[in-house]
Amino acid sequence: MTSLQSELGEEEGIAEELAESQRAISIAEFFEKNKHMLGFDSGARGLVTAVKEAVDNALDACEEAGIPPDIYVEIQEQGDYYRLIVEDNGPGITKEQIPKIFGKLLYGSRFHKREQNRGQQGIGISAAVLYSQLTSGKPAEITSRTQGGDEAEYFELIIDTDQNEPEIDVEETTTWERPHGTRIEMEMEANMRARQQLHDYIKHTAVVNPHARIELREPNDHFKYERATDQLPAETEEIRPHPHGVELGTLIKMLDATDSYSVSGFMQGEFTRVGQKTADDVIDSLKDRHYGRELAWQPPEEKKKRDYKAFLEQAVSNKGADATSQFATNVADVVSGRERVSHQDVVEIVDNVADGVEDDHDVTFGSTVRENAVDAVWGLVTGTAEGEDEDAPQEYRARDLYQMIDEATTSRKDDAGIKGLADRIAAKLVREDGHRDRFTYDELAEFVRKSAEDTEEYDDVTFGETARENVLERLWAIGRTVPDDAPDVSEIAGDRDTASELLEAMRETDIIAPPTDCLAPITDELVEAGLKKEFDADFYAASTRDASVHGGDPFIVEAGLAYGGDVEAENKATVMRFANRVPLVYQRGACATTDVVKSINWRNYGLDQPGGSGIPNGPVVIMVHVASTNVPFTSESKDAVANVPEMESEIELAIREAARDLKSYLNKRRSMQQRREKQNKLATILPEMAEKLTEVTGRDELVIDDSIARIMNNVLVEREVEDGTVKVVVENNSDTNADVDVTDIVSVEPQDTNGAQVVEMDGEWFVKWSETVSSGEEATLEYSVDGDAEFDISVEGVEDELLTVNA
Ligand SMILES: Nc1ncnc2c1ncn2[C@@H]1O[C@H](COP(=O)(O)OP(=O)(O)OP(=O)(O)O)[C@@H](O)[C@H]1O
């Protein structure tokens, strides 16, 4: 095999030779070679993708301008080529923008917006132009007329792939009958093998965009989807990113770019849902991570109170007896009244009391006096005061820790073991004077780990993972956030570790979900309506979740189910996927939506699922819509949603919500089916038994008309007519109340109708009566008729399987 080395020659300068062949690649050149990444991998698919890009843009543009979309798509056969025409009634595109939009990849208005749009990257339509010029050699033709413009602009252009810039062949003004809008014509090498996908795309687009009129004209076919509503989707607002889910690189970029000096200003200015309070919480959490916390200890018990006083009095000199005594007493009172105090707590107590005494006695407690007082108290709290034993600092802390460990470990540990652990941790916490017991979480974790290991080795007492974690959490919980200022923005931006601490602080702080006015979900009602429009099923369910966040972008997941009726029963369920109201027709297997559908145990919801995983079988359509300001697609061709855990979990919850309704429906249907079977059996057996009984006993024939209703606990409706009096009796044998609407249709005019509603139509009288009949009760509707009459009854409000009508 020839090596690169031998090809290039042994001599020096290989790097230089290689360097000569290095050059930048324009994005257009890159995609020219990698058009499959944009969904243009074959002629069949290319045509569908081009239609999709143009129609998505048309819908986006119309909605943005508040215009109900009117979209016309035509595909003409031209020898070996196809000509694609897409026309919309949107706001149009200005003359200056047309060349860039169609003749430059990565040029668009949506990439930097946090708002729900179909388009995201600024690649779609220029990629279609690129594909068209590559396969047909012809320029794209664009006509656009802006709202209020007298004339339209007409362009013929291609993309100069070396430069990724438009190359304009023709530019002229023209007339166009549309008052505003855009028309694109492109010729491309294509075929109609993907007709099904094209139809699915157009049809499903119509389902989730009921406000759009869409027409598709093909060489041999013509489809029209009329507008079902003039109501455009709710207008969306652009938002700032949400602190949950921003990535470190993005955060550093934002820190570099912001004008804010303080973290508080940065948080409130650059993120959504952050006010003063939330910013303060994030800052505290950042400080805890950056500086650690100051541990707070129990002050020595009550009898030592006089020691405080004595020490404090010593610390204060020349302030007069009254002021000194008041100061010492008050500080001693406050400290001994606290459950725990940290160094900073002592500083605050001393300052507060000193300020009060200054006011009362007209003396000044300067910083030296205050510092002396703080040292005196802190020395007493931590065992370093004058006269204390050398071991006191460790003993004090160990005593406190002993209690904590004892409470934090559930199973009673050997006393010596607890003491051993407390001693070892305490030893590590004792530092030189002036340390203030300030430790980071990681330091404390290390102390606990090492001390627990030593205790196991030397005292033979084991503290497992949970016990260690509990001890650590308690220790961290007795720590107080330090008084130091948080690092400022430039400091954080310049230090990746601190930026990472801020990121963690942002993620750990409770922050309300992002606003949803940047999103336009379809809503559960319209999801159901959309399914009803397309599938003639027996049952529909839909759910819309609350907004969540991924990567700082909010998203909402919706799911819908259609079951039974005319839905295909032989095969696996149909899974319909949508992102920002765009149907996803390719790469089903690579989509998070499909993965989630497969991972659900559908048997729990009453569907057949061989092996307990995978797409369920049966007459069911599963629809999932992900709406986001930034849908995480697996590739630029936007065919499949990536496996983002937050999104997968919401997809699952949305599907499960709808599936729960399906389960109730199927359970009910099953129990109704069982009732029907039981009733049918009874209807055969009962008359036979009655006949046998009459035969054996020789008594009169038994009347069994009402027996089935009573055995089955049904609502029984009967009519008796005697001497012109009609009685309709509703007998409720069930164990719940029944709200029934009974309509008796009579061939002669009824009299004395006792408040029933009577309507005459074509010589028939409808006697309607609504009643709530309690369980075990009966109600009677009475009226009279003159002469012979024919009757027909209709009962509503009770399911057929729970009703027996003998009338
Ligand atoms: N029919 C149209 N009417 C008005 N503006 C349009 C139309 N088509 C495209 N645009 C504008 O051109 C921009 C670029 O469109 P393009 O399809 O290249 O990218 P996109 O839709 O922003 O994102 P994506 O690459 O994800 O499709 C859009 O952002 C929009 O501002």
From TrEMBL:
<dbReference type="GO" id="GO:0006265">
    <property type="term" value="P:DNA topological change"/>
</dbReference>
<feature type="binding site">
    <location>
        <begin position="109"/>
        <end position="110"/>
    </location>
    <ligand>
        <name>ATP</name>
    </ligand>
</feature>
<dbReference type="Pfam" id="PF02518">
    <property type="entry name" value="HATPase_c"/>
</dbReference>
<keyword id="KW-0799">Topoisomerase</keyword>
<dbReference type="InterPro" id="IPR005734">
    <property type="entry name" value="TopoVI_B"/>
</dbReference>
<dbReference type="GO" id="GO:0003677">
    <property type="term" value="F:DNA binding"/>
</dbReference>
<keyword id="KW-0547">Nucleotide-binding</keyword>
<keyword id="KW-0238">DNA-binding</keyword>
<comment type="function">
    <text>Relaxes both positive and negative superturns and exhibits a strong decatenase activity.</text>
</comment>
<feature type="binding site">
    <location>
        <position position="57"/>
    </location>
    <ligand>
        <name>ATP</name>
    </ligand>
</feature>
<dbReference type="Pfam" id="PF09239">
    <property type="entry name" value="Topo-VIb_trans"/>
</dbReference>
<feature type="coiled-coil region">
    <location>
        <begin position="655"/>
        <end position="682"/>
    </location>
</feature>
<feature type="binding site">
    <location>
        <position position="638"/>
    </location>
    <ligand>
        <name>ATP</name>
    </ligand>
</feature>
<dbReference type="GO" id="GO:0006260">
    <property type="term" value="P:DNA replication"/>
</dbReference>
<keyword id="KW-0067">ATP-binding</keyword>
<feature type="binding site">
    <location>
        <position position="88"/>
    </location>
    <ligand>
        <name>ATP</name>
    </ligand>
</feature>
<dbReference type="InterPro" id="IPR020568">
    <property type="entry name" value="Ribosomal_Su5_D2-typ_SF"/>
</dbReference>
<dbReference type="InterPro" id="IPR015320">
    <property type="entry name" value="TopoVI_B_transducer"/>
</dbReference>
<keyword id="KW-0175">Coiled coil</keyword>
<dbReference type="GO" id="GO:0005524">
    <property type="term" value="F:ATP binding"/>
</dbReference>
<feature type="binding site">
    <location>
        <begin position="119"/>
        <end position="126"/>
    </location>
    <ligand>
        <name>ATP</name>
    </ligand>
</feature>
<dbReference type="InterPro" id="IPR040494">
    <property type="entry name" value="Top6b_C"/>
</dbReference>
<keyword id="KW-0413">Isomerase</keyword>
<dbReference type="InterPro" id="IPR036890">
    <property type="entry name" value="HATPase_C_sf"/>
</dbReference>
<dbReference type="GO" id="GO:0003918">
    <property type="term" value="F:DNA topoisomerase type II (double strand cut, ATP-hydrolyzing) activity"/>
</dbReference>
<feature type="domain" description="Histidine kinase/HSP90-like ATPase">
    <location>
        <begin position="42"/>
        <end position="192"/>
    </location>
</feature>
<comment type="subunit">
    <text>Homodimer. Heterotetramer of two Top6A and two Top6B chains.</text>
</comment>
<comment type="similarity">
    <text>Belongs to the TOP6B family.</text>
</comment>
<protein>
    <recommendedName>
        <fullName>Type 2 DNA topoisomerase 6 subunit B</fullName>
        <ecNumber>5.6.2.2</ecNumber>
    </recommendedName>
</protein>
<dbReference type="Pfam" id="PF18000">
    <property type="entry name" value="Top6b_C"/>
</dbReference>
<dbReference type="InterPro" id="IPR003594">
    <property type="entry name" value="HATPase_dom"/>
</dbReference>
<dbReference type="InterPro" id="IPR014721">
    <property type="entry name" value="Ribsml_uS5_D2-typ_fold_subgr"/>
</dbReference>
